Amino acid sequence: MPQNVPEELCRTIEMLYRSESGRILATLARLLGDLDVAEEAMHEAFAAALDTWPQAGVPDQPRPWLISTARFKAIDGMRRRARFDSAQKDLALYLEARINEAPYDDDEIEDDRLRLIFTCCHPALPPEGQLALTLREVCGLTTEEIARAFLVPPATLAQRIVRAKAKIREASIPYEVPSPQELPERLSAVLHVIYLVFNEGYSAAAGAEVTRAELTGEAIRLGRLLTELQPEPEVIGLLAMMLLQESRRAARTSPTGELILLENQDRSLWNREQIAEGVALLEKALKSRRFGSYTLQAAIAAVHAEAESVTVTDWRQIVALYDRLVRIQPSPVVHLNRAVAIAMCDGAEAGLTHIDAVLEHGELANYYLAHSARADMYRRLGRTAEARSSYEKALALTQQEPERQFLQERIRQLN
Question: What does the alpha-carbon distance between residue 285 and residue 273 come to, in Å, rounded to a whole number?
Fold first, then answer.
């Protein structure tokens, strides 16, 4: 903790960084035209807050204060560099004028992250670079969190980010939403990024909490912006899916943070407004015959959301939807989810057969939910030793504390 800064103020600034740094960075990227310069200016602004706010107090509107301070820090940096490098003088004058003239009202700030996402998802960047850069710079995930999502070493992921930034500079990629003619080819990567952000928020890869509400909330906000910009069926379907999944968040953990499975959730805690909005959006997306995987996932979530309990859930319909989903997105995780749905229809033995078939391919060997699902099938079949072994594999692979506690309790019950 910095010296002479009250602990409460440090926590406030830390919370502001977590919730606002993505928006601030996106606005600074537009104003400054360079992601690295924007990052440096943003960090200097937060450092200035630590120096200034203990005496002056936290501003009523911290985000504009931080953006304004970062702008001045960037201008000062340009002036210093211009003194030592005459070639930088004209650039410094141009950027200073641009910074001073550029608007940064609330509407502009709200649109900036969408601009930055489209920039980070530019087709000139390789797909892995698009995703890594957007998740890191726009959404604030750490390099380690993204590396886990991609199943690559953090050093490899960091290099992807560095190369993507360099490509943006070298190709002079503008920080703007593409034209209507360019938009369709750019949507796929942007949708995937928003989907990954939501998934990390819905089920955190590590840490003390099951969910990260700031990430799910941000993904939904970005989904709304994109729906207004381009109301294509899959854009609408993704927003519907996120709302339907997010509607269950309050029921997914106990007041003390323990994980609660779907079958044990208090459905009165589900957010009915989000369910109603999600279902309405889903119906709109389904009217088109051009929907895809996100809309199908929303349809699956809707079946759960509209059921009064697990026992009366239409699992046959869910399996049928997964059958359609695996035809257009035959990923191992989709096959695993389908196998769990089959178990709810046809029993644990049938589910176990399908889960074993998925695990045989080896792609989910380090995916803890695959081993947890297999363990649950063994438990339901009374095969205690095999259930314990699979639960222990899952436990060794997860870094999420509530999930670890849940698996440890399952193992204790078997013992």
Answer: 18
SS3 211: coil
Contacts of residue 37, Cβ cutoff 8 Å, sequence gap at least 6: 28, 74, 77
Rounded to whole angstroms, how far apart are CA atoms 415 and 70?
57
SS3 335: helix
Query: pLDDT tens for residues 261-288?
Result: 999 999 999 999 999 999 999 999 999 8
What are 158-190's pLDDT values in tens digits?
Answer: 999 999 999 998 998 888 888 878 877 788 889
Beta bridge partners of 207: 400
Question: Locate tokens 């301070």: which residue?
Answer: 69
DSSP 8-class letter at 330: -
How far is the C-alpha of 17 from the C-alpha of 24, rounded, in Å? 9
Cα distance between residue 41 and residue 38, in whole Å:
5
Tokens at 318, concatenated: 């869910």
User: Residue 333's closest CA among 310, 295, 367, 375?
Assistant: 367
DSSP 104: -
Q: Quickly list H helices, 230-367.
A: 233-246, 272-286, 293-306, 315-328, 332-346, 348-360
- In 3D space, the residue among 404, 372, 399, 402 whose CA is nearest the CA of residue 388 turns out to be 372
Question: By the 8 A CB rule, do 259 and 403 touch?
Answer: yes
Question: What angle, rounded to 10 degrees, do the helices at 62-84 and 87-101 form?
Answer: 160
Q: How far is CA 241 from CA 221, 237, 274, 283, in A?
A: 13, 6, 10, 12
Phi, psi of 207 (to 5 degrees): 110, -170
**Which value, in Å, is the radius of gyration of the alpha carbons in the chain?**
24
Q: Which two tokens stand for residue 145?
A: 């969190």
Q: Where is 15: in which H helix or E strand?
A: helix 7-32
